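S1.2 Input.
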Amino acid sequence: MAKTELSERRLLPRAGERAAPAPTHLTLETSAACNLRCTMCSLEEFYAPKGLMTLETFERCAPLIPALQSIDFGTTGENLLNPRLMTMMARARAISPGLHMHLQTNATLLDAALAETLVECGLDVLIVSIDAARPETFARIRLGARLDDVIQAVERVAAARERARARRPALHVTYTLQAANLGELPDAVDLAARLGASRLNVNNVEVYSPETLPEALYLFPHPDLPGVEAETRARARANAIDLHLPLFHEEEIEPCRFLAPGVSWDGEVTPCAALSYRRRYFHRGEWRTAPQRSFGNVHREALLDIWNSAPYVAFRAHFEAGRFAPECHGCARRDGVICG
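S1.3 Output.
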């Protein structure tokens, strides 16, 4: 994400300020389906039903766009599966020319025509998931994808941007760190630099099954971790990459950096990505279940009315008072092991 990266957003008022009548940041889940089966992803096991956001659902959110600073397209699935995505992005840009738009993708469907359209619609930041620096490791983790195809897709966007003599979209890379790809993290910095990325966001794997448990470096520290971390930081400095690393131990972080309203593909309004769907996960030595927390549906109420509803205002009041809401106890994001 660009100037309004989640870790840099100020979603809550400072002391003495009144609560904002409308949010300044919004996430739209344009797809709850994916074309890959990544080994560390809980989408396939826990997320149901799966679907694609319709233009009708998007238009229910559109009246809020003039008040927004930024909009994120995507939380759970692969956004480029939605054939209506480019129409939504063009519409958002037409409503608010100064809006910062961010798109997350695995890039496997990003062909030349889509690359041209992303540049034409004024996308500010393209966020691409690259979880390995070697093709064989990438293929083992991101089942159904090839690293070379993703690299070529990113290069298509860069070429389209150059032809248009445009400065955007900027490229950010995300990397889900686990035991299987720890040793490749420094090389991933170099790869991100070669692709023209300005930022690398690294997250720990979120444990949702016994199979993913051994991959969590914050639960099972690897002896190579200190050296890999030091080398990664050194290469980021050498390549002028803005590097964001998670914590490698569970430590409560305040205030929450993830509190941003989102609208699911079918119109449910949730307070953050972590509460967008019900799933099981391992935290502080035990298995827990994260609930879905919805404050309403845009097909039944206006989005702004949901934002200003008594339950949603009460939920945000916990954070405004410097506390976490009850639903947030046990969240890996509040403990800093998931950072973006």
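S1.4 Remarks. Residues 147-163 form the longest helix (17 residues).
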